[in-house]
Amino acid sequence: MRRGPDYLAHAVLALGGAIFVLPIWVAFAGATESAGAINRGDLSLIPRLSGLRAFLDVLGFGAPVNAHVSIGHMLLVSFAMAMAIALGKIAISAISAFAIAFFRFPGRMPAFWIILLTLMLPVEVRIIPTYAVVSDFHLINSFAGLTLPLIASATATLLFRQVFLAIPDELVEAAKLDGTGPMRFFFDMVLPVSAPNLAALFVILFVYGWNQYLWPLLAATNGHLDTIVLGIVRMITTDQLTPWNLVMAATIWAILPPVAVVLLMQRWFVRGLIEADK
Asked: Domain range spanning residue 124?
């Protein structure tokens, strides 16, 4: 028997979608207004076609505190940082989980539990010792200092381990009989089986890296490595008149890359989340 459409569920989904989309639409419409109009409170929800040029103008705009670095440059820094963090976390976590799942060596499980304990220590808790270590290695104001402290992930290691443990022992034994080495087994058999989980983790970790604020604020002090999140904040925190139309245009640009990653990898992202529970 076919059930009719669930109007209540659709209404709740529509309301939830409107709640999320409305602030983005306000920012988009505000970007097409003049800064003076926004400061006077004359913000319209209908975009002005003549104001769309603000989205191009803002790419060459530098925040008053850091005028020599443009918003376009900050977007590139954020993208490079997010990619480095996502790919670095996946590489380190996959290899670590592979060693824990398939090798039998002394201290294997204690090492795994120590990795899990780091879940209790977010970046904000260990920010001072992390900064001290990076400073001692003279990595402040470098791309390595911006990314290396963030590329270890206990969560990704745990998820990869659970996926690897689901691989049948018969497959492992067959690989041994064929004379397959550990790294060839890892690249030819383990990673292809884990492709949906790789995609899901990449989406999550890319968004995590893109949204970083506290660590870039400390590790990049000369302005050349400012991320788009820092750039937007510095456009606002100034004694001068805030160019709210450019702030909103920069905000829209900051939203687009993570949204594009989610949309492009949506199918694999959902599959990875479902298969991680199996």
From this structure: 7-275
At residue 175, the 3 state secondary structure works out as helix
pLDDT category, 253, cuts 50, 70, 90?
very high
DSSP structure class, residue 241:
P
The predicted pLDDT at position 275 comes to 58
Answer yes or no: is pLDDT of 40 > 70: yes
Q: What is the dihedral of CA 254, 260, 261, 262, to 10 degrees?
A: 110
> Half-sphere exposure of residue 212, counting CA atoms within 13 Å on the CB side?
35
- CATH number of the structural domain spanning residue 226: 1.10.3720.10
| Residue pointed to by tokens 């939203």 | 255
Cα–Cα distance measured from residue 86 to residue 205, given in angstroms and rounded to the nearest whole number: 5
Q: Is the dihedral of CA 150, 152, 154, 160 positive or negative?
A: positive
pLDDT digits (tens, 9 = 90+) for 42-56: 778 888 888 888 888
Instruction: Fill in the amino acid letter for 50.
Output: S
